[in-house]
Amino acid sequence: MNEKVVMRPIPIGPSVSNTSQSVSKTAEGPSFDQLFQQQLEQQTNVKFSAHALKRLESRQISLDNEDMALLKDAVNKVEAKGAKESLILMDQLALVVSVKNRTVITAVDSNNLKENVFTNIDSAVIVKKQ
What we know:
The chain is an alpha/beta fold. The chain is built from three helices and five strands, in the order H-E-H-H-E-E-E-E.
């Protein structure tokens, strides 16, 4: 019973192989980073419901890039606070937004704001252009 146990260290890490493997890359289509950025932008943009689009069109309200940036920032702020439905007041426009879905539900201009009651909102944001 004079057996010796020999312990040899086992290297930790990737194994080294003498054979070279070639991986072919295809340059077709967008890269993963580009696709990821596109998806991220789509998820952070604000959409408009069919009802809101009808209201904007019937009241001849148009939003420019600056308005959309302000709206997006406002939605981001109330989302960070945990809001679900928010009233966003921009200049002469009131927008009710589903924060969870990042969707404008309805739009009211200053001519139709008089004695208007907004229900089912849990927050309000006042946004001013600079």
